Protein DML1 (Candida parapsilosis), 545 residues
Amino acid sequence: MAKECPPLPFNEWLFPPSRSTAGMSEILNLSYGQYSNSTITHLYNFQESQIPYTKDTKLNHQLSTFLYKSKPYGSTTANYYPRALLFDLRNGLGALNKYEYAEEIPQLNIPILNQSQQQQSQTTQSQKHEYQKSLDQGKADASLLHTGNTKYWTDYNKLIYNPKSIITLPSYQHQYNSYGLNFNLPRQKFDLYSTGITEFKSIGTESVEDFRYWLEKCDFLQGLQLGTTIDDSWSGFTTAMIEVIQDEFFNNKENVWIYGQYNHHEHHHSEQHRQSILYQVSQIKSFIELYKSSSLFIPLLPNYNSSMLSSLDTSSIWHTSCIPALFINSIWGVNNQYVDQVSMFHMQENLLRGDEARKIVNEVKIVGEGDSGGSGGGTGVGTGVGGDLMDIDLTKVRDLTTLTQEARKPEISLGVSQSMENIRYINKNYIVRNKEDLNTNGNAMSIDDDDGIPTNVYTNPYMTQITNTDTFPNILQSKNDKFHIEFNVHNGIKDYLKPYKTTIERLKLNFNDLVEDKAELIEDISNIISSYSSGFESDDDDYYD
């Protein structure tokens, strides 16, 4: 394996070094559940758009980072497969048979106890989506996609997956935009952390062997990027698998980034779930264990109330999953573009700066940059005041200066923490289209670093192009809108975690299957809070509250 370069110096303004060429390296993606699989489908559809279909096509990205190129013996053409392992529940693939495009189809013997459920499953099996039929005919008619008929990630997926990239859990049945149900005991839901731990044991061998298959196809692995959900059983399944592969393949030293998404947060606001202490404890356990299993943890909780969004159907996973895809795609581009490429290792070192405990990226924003006219052109994302009032809480506006300042930057917030008064940033990170966008007048972005906050700036000239892929839904005010990405670490995460600690401290019920050691979980939460308090004298008392 190639030797890693030393960490970049801790400059006040950190631009990663520009490289005109990049060595071959790979990133393996693991995705768990319908929401994460829908997100990664948007990402891989953009990767598909970068595949050259003519010899004179100019390549801007190292395709081998996320795609595996296979050239059959004696063939003049090559096939590209995602370097990925996707997990879903039974019937979660929609009409796709994972062996549909495979040369050999194995004979499977899956035990079935509930015959009535099996018969119902057969009668309600999905029909192949019209968009997929058009792809089979060598066409791509995206007009066939709409929220009424696009329910599975396989409905709009454009790449063919190797059969060893797809694993389904036989014991739980897919339910659209809801928790899966036990195939034989339908009242049992796929909602608790402990359920995921148990289910991994049932297919752990297959999961590890398929992971080994893809690992052996890597020459120089940058690391693993995982997409999972915090608020259902996939969190437990994910941590159980990470523990095994870290121990078996990496001696617990591999870079593991986890994008922990909230799939069911709209449903959780119901009175029933507010009263469910069991579910609250499960979500707390999930968050802490995903944090402990990662080298970088990015929890994502999108706020759909933004003037940058238009015609967003929040009940459509096809729609909502493309919002985190905008953010993750910008990072993928930095990882695999030929010019100004920055590896996972260097991005992680730049962000952590030697403190591995402060690894929660708690503020993530997609920030609109407006247009050259300054009025927004009626799109709602310009810099004028009138076009962006819907983004502002007018009860908190004290003067016109504050109003103008807030209206100048429409944004989509994806993090569990947002910008607020009296927070202290540990570091800031930007992904911009060009360095020329920085510190300029007019509508372009301007970064203020008067406080000496460590800041990393990355360039990705292609990150907005994902909105032009034919399967990307029209959820933005305009597909021509320009934006940049911010992902930051600040001590506001303490306010997010303190209620977690209080909940566990007050826990009277016995949830041994979920929390084996209550004191250990409290200590884990306290240690995280403490790590974001150290170095800030005024926060010391806050830690002991």
Observations:
- The first helix runs from residue 33 to 49.
- The domain at 13-352 is CATH 3.40.50.1440 (Rossmann fold).
- The chain has 15 helices and 15 strands.
- The chain has two domains: 13-352, 495-543.
